[in-house]
Amino acid sequence: MLHGQTRAQRAPKTVRPTLVRLHVSGDVCPNLLPRLLGLVAQFDQIPYGIALTRFPAGLKLSIDLGRLEEARAEILLNKVSGIPTVRGARLVAVRRN
Questions:
Q1: Which pLDDT belongs to residue 77?
Q2: Are strands 19-26 and 86-94 parallel, antiparallel or unpaired?
Q3: pLDDT tens digit string along 71-86?
Q4: Which of 36, 59, 65, 81 ranks highest by number of CB atoms within 10 Å?
């Protein structure tokens, strides 16, 4: 253990499965992130990670999810794309160790 570091600060190393990263760009809207997380929850997913960047002209979000079957991934992507404040959405497979 490093000096000054507690066990809680050291994350255990675990092998993670292939992840799916959902990239979303959209309008600056306070409801966009909660709506996306609500959809993710409907697919019984708990995100491995979430990144959000706010720009003057919009938001960019990335949400790392566990493995999704192709059909379910397509349904999720269609639902995300149907949110009125979403400008674009795509899913990318990501391998993390």
A1: 96
A2: antiparallel
A3: 999 999 999 999 999 9
A4: 36
